[in-house]
Amino acid sequence: MLKSQSTPPKKLSTAQQALLMLHKIHARGTFLVVNVLLLLMVLYTSYRFPAKFVRVQGECDSNWLHAKAPENSTSICCTNESGGYASAPCYPGMDLMPVMGSLKGAWAIPLSVLVLNYGSMMLGPDASMPRVRVYVRRGLLYAVVMALRTVVLYMGFGQVEKGLTRAVMGRSDDSCWYASLRRGKRCPGGFDHSDHIVLLVSHYMAIPLFEWFALNVESAGPSMKRTVLRAWIIIIGGLAAYLLFFTASYFHTPTENLVGLLIAQAFVMLPLLLVTQDYFAVKWLRLRNFVLPANDDLKHN
């Protein structure tokens, strides 16, 4: 049952402060390891698969050509039929990318961990108005992050990038033989940083990593809830890593991949890490607004 409290939360006990410090240290290590692995993955795919494929219209729903394919080359068709994923850039599960990249999927899937966490909290002994407010503020934090990725990093950076590319390299709308096969009847731009990498890292890795940290802080100890939510976070992150590997391998140049990764790390990963460390002096970015340690008297969350 929800405990109504009009007074502000009590100060953290010595034990809570010590545990919180330990969780902060673990968060730094986790964020560092994940980002180093992402960088190594992008560098590996850039070395192993330097080719870039572009989408064209053809016989099936998913048709692709090498960006530098000789004139009149046959497009590659990716289908769910037997052998339909045998040739690059086709890969099993590539139909997941449109789902996870859609507006609904890109918002609903990352927020699902918080929603499940909130629901289990409301059914447990630790439910209280201060804790509800913390969960709501955390949801708003995630919404701001996803809106930032959509409006600024995708729309805004995309327009700036397009303008700079045209200024430096000129227009290339008709410079490729397969322009007529493209949906917009135009050749791909000279440079197109991988927004799919920005999306996958920002929505499906950075936010679940922060929720992993919050789950650890708010759990009084091992529990079925924590185990299930951790498993779901790992599934989401694993799917994102799988899609990121093939996105970086086939659909962008090494430079485009690296720029996309650095954008996600600089504008999303790093700020969220700094929030876990209570780095910001701004009142509304303090860690206590988004995470509330478990009560000392609770053995299980």
TrEMBL record:
Main location class: endoplasmic reticulum
GO terms for biological process, alphabetical: lipid storage
Keyword Mitochondrion: no
A GO cellular component entry from the record: endoplasmic reticulum membrane
Keyword Transmembrane applies: yes
UniProt keywords, alphabetically: Endoplasmic reticulum, Membrane, Transmembrane, Transmembrane helix
Bilayer disposition of the protein: Multi-pass membrane protein
Protein name: Sphingomyelin synthase-like domain-containing protein
